[in-house]
Amino acid sequence: MSAPAPAATIDQLKELPLPVPPFSYAPQTWGWWVLLAMALAAALAYAVLAWRRWQRERYRREALQRLNQLDAALAIPEQRLQALRELPELLKRVALSMPDAPPVHSLSGPHWQAFLQQRARFALPEQFAERLQTLAYAPDARVQSLGAEELSTLVHTCRRWIEAHHVAV
Fold this sequence. Notes:
The protein has helices at residues 30-56, 58-73, 77-97, 109-119, 128-137, 140-144, 148-164. The protein is mostly helical.
């Protein structure tokens, strides 16, 4: 009888090489390369335009952040008057920061109301500019006496205007 054959172990197994595909994954004609280049150029152009739009809207994001801080300060009695006084100033700064930079620094009363309405994408309350003027220039007691509902409406209108005002670009 012959000697038994040695048992095969797992260490002796060899991995089979993957077969080479019979074709290339690269495009075979120049038209596909042109199409790829056009798609990449379009994606790059879209990314650049989106980045520029995001940069152009920076003033809006910062104003909304400040408005949120002012809204939170309205709940604190010690900071309420200062927050109310800053609300009209914030809208004026937003208008001055717009990319087309209209000359709004001297607008007040009906001219300011007309400007705000012209740039708004919704109907503003009739006395919006007058309420802002009250917040800016009225005596402290008059500003402090404004009701919570009126202030909530005013802050909401300011937020909507900042978020949605039209900018001619």
